[in-house]
Design brief:
- The chain has 427 residues and is mainly beta.
- It has two helices and 39 strands.
- The strands form four sheets. Strands 1-2-4-7-10-13-16-19-22-25-28-31-35-39 form a 14-stranded parallel sheet, with helices on one face.
- Helix 2 links the parallel strand 1 and strand 2.
- It is elongated, with a radius of gyration of 23 Å.
- 53% of the residues are buried.
């Protein structure tokens, strides 16, 4: 080989799309004594050997590993890939289980503290704390796992950036259900994390509720993407006892698009969240939906508990948000009602929000309700600058058949300078 080509070939091998695997470690034992062949041994070896690793599985039945205390963290200077799909008998559904019933109080299923790792095709269940905890770590992938029945969040990202939960094909889909929170994003400014193609709050069929208390809880950070415009990127976020998605003030610039929120995986039946589909608590600059068909969220069937709006923009700082191009209160065809219990969209206190290009029909109260009220003074304060245009409110997506909201189409209460419609046909 030409000597000049050798350095170039080395560079291409190192910086390719997957890590240059230097060590393959195979888990062959179900015991947890730390000896060769155990999962504990494999994690400890990968953590300390300073090279990229693939952890493979060749376990006997019943494929269940039960740690007796906290497992070593995934935290080497080089990536580690935990590949449950390597287990003989795998056919696209995870069969290797890491079960935390013996791990003790506060035990976490997997802790990830470094960059570029992949956790793939494992069942991570019944830990008293988080299922997977990504701690100040970046560019990790969690794919094809069933993360269920854990005492805190199924997946918790603390201060990490560029992490991906899920994927666009069925075998990359995580089922994140029956935890306290499904996915929690928090800490010191996590950003540009992506949650794509998962079932959050349902069973693996996407048809029945396996509730978390909240599906996705964004406490902090910027640029969180929930779903996406392309095929397979949307999540099913349904069946949770609280809200499907809850965003708090320290989170900003969230984009929520292409998801089914409150329905089954087909978008044809209700599997409602107990409170709101999407709940914005004093956050500005959120985008819910978009102008392309792939951006559309179906936000329907919510409010199975004591209340419930399709979209709830709450608080004086819930300003400059976009609710665009969604089906709210109807099914994925836009032709049949799947009611949210209360309003399709409720704005309580925040101004300058835009609600456009949606079908908002079949809801249990108003299609859109804008109410000027402040909980800081417990008094009415006028909401200003709301824009409502180009929507079908009270009809199906064709605009020719009635799908009535039970209350007003649009209710403006203590509202000023609202714009309803416009001069163009599309308005």
């Amino acid at each position: 080989m030409n000597a000049l080509l050798v350095p170039l070939l080395f560079v291409l091998l190192v910086v390719g799309s997957s890590p240059a695997v230097a060590d393959t470690i195979t888990v062959t034992s179900l015991t947890d004594n730390g000896e060769s062949g155990t999962f504990r041994w494999a994690l400890a070896r990968a953590r300390t050997n300073g090279v990229a690793d693939s952890i493979l599985f060749d376990l006997p039945l019943p494929y269940v590993i039960e740690p007796t205390n906290q497992l070593p963290a995934v935290g080497d200077s080089q990536p580690t890939w935990l590949l449950g799909s390597s287990q003989p008998g795998y056919t696209g559904v995870p069969i290797v289980t890491v079960r935390g019933t013996l791990a003790g109080a506060s035990a976490i299923g997997l802790v990830v503290t470094s960059a570029g790792n992949r956790v793939q095709a494992l069942v991570i269940a019944a830990f008293s704390n988080y299922g997977v905890y990504v701690q100040s770590a970046h560019s990790n992938e969690i794919q094809g796992c069933y993360i269920v029945g854990n005492g805190s969040s199924g997946v918790d990202i603390w201060a990490g950036r560029g992490n991906v939960i899920g994927g666009t094909i069925a075998s990359d889909r995580n089922v994140i259900s029956s935890n306290y929170y499904g996915v929690q994003i928090r800490g010191s400014q996590p950003h540009t994390n992506r949650i794509v193609g998962n079932y959050i709050g349902t069973d693996p069929t996407g048809s029945n509720a396996w509730p978390n208390s909240v599906g996705i809880f964004a406490q902090a950070g910027a640029g969180l993407l929930v779903g996406g415009s392309d095929a397979g990127e949307g999540n099913v976020i349904s069946g949770n006892t609280g809200s499907g998605i809850l965003v708090l003030p320290s989170a900003s610039a969230c984009i929520i698009r292409g998801n089914f929120i409150g329905t089954d995986a087909s978008g044809s039946q209700a599997v409602g969240n107990g409170l709101n589909g999407v709940e914005d608590q004093n956050v500005g600059g959120i985008t819910i939906g978009g102008t392309n068909a792939g951006d559309r969220n179906v936000i329907s069937g919510n409010g199975t508990g004591s209340g419930g709006q399709g979209v709830y923009l709450f608080g004086a700082d819930a300003r400059n948000n976009l609710v665009v191009g969604n089906y709210i209160g109807v099914d994925a065809t836009g032709l049949k009602a799947i009611s949210n219990r209360n309003n399709g969209v409720q704005v309580l206190g925040g101004g300058s929000n835009t609600i456009s290009g949606n079908v908002i029909s079949g809801n249990g109260d108003a299609g859109v309700r804008v109410y000027g009220y402040s909980y800081s003074c417990f008094c009415n304060v006028h909401v200003t600058g709301t824009v409502i245009r180009g929507n079908y409110i009270g009809t199906d997506r064709t605009g020719t058949n009635a799908l009535r909201n039970s209350g007003a189409g649009i209710a403006l209460i203590y509202s000023r300078e609202a714009v309803i419609g416009g001069t163009n046909t599309a308005d």
